[in-house]
């Protein structure tokens, strides 16, 4: 299906809701630094997520739990300096919002003030309802995140597909409707059955952005290191690799080592 694409000079939370209403799919990717964000933004991405996946791909941790609010602010401020068009959404990291709504608001204010990001994302539904309300009441846009929520990995015990059983699927649907009614501007659904994700997307008016949630939703998000093939240890079924940068970069760096060792680099034109 071809859809007329409106030319948004600057993507806002309102543009995303309009895109859903017009049937235009939303393209979102993660970025964590200035150089990458500049490339991603200039390629026409709608939303950049400064994800707490930085904990994995930037810092090498096994989970997203160790990354701190200060570290998220550092990554987000680097991204914000690079962008001209995309909406920048910043993850509230584990431990920065779960204890009470006041802490959630304080952390969100720090992100907005110190990084210049445009919105925050939190994992969870009903259990964090009061925190979401408090953040929204302060005028800060909130993106929800349901399904596989990596900050709860030690509760789940595994990264397998969520909400396959009716009870969990029903809770997810209720949570999605709750997030919409609270005033969230969009929702990420991670690693759930495609038919459930499509049903959720059709049941609410805010955009649903999927990762491992099939094609029946309003947009897609991937971790940039995964889709560029920089990380060759992670190959879930939902991932499409657009490049093989791991091997490409390794070959280039190997060639540089060879050129330096053999005194081929620098040559007569590469010096003053
Ligand atoms: O941190 C992240 O990159 C995310 C995406 C997987 C949605 O939350």
What does this structure look like?
The protein has 272 residues and is α/β, with parallel strands linked by helices. The chain has 2 domains: 229 residues, Phosphoenolpyruvate-binding domains (TIM Barrel); 27 residues, no CATH class. It contains 11 helices and 8 strands. Strands 1-2-3-4-5-6-7-8 form an 8-stranded parallel β-barrel, surrounded by 7 helices. Helix 4 packs parallel to helix 5. The longest helix has 17 residues. It starts with 12 loop residues before the first helix and ends in an 11-residue tail after the last helix. The structure holds 3-methyl-2-oxobutanoic acid. 3-methyl-2-oxobutanoic acid binds next to strand 6. It is found in: Cytoplasm. It comes from Flavobacterium segetis. One of its GO terms (molecular function) is magnesium ion binding.
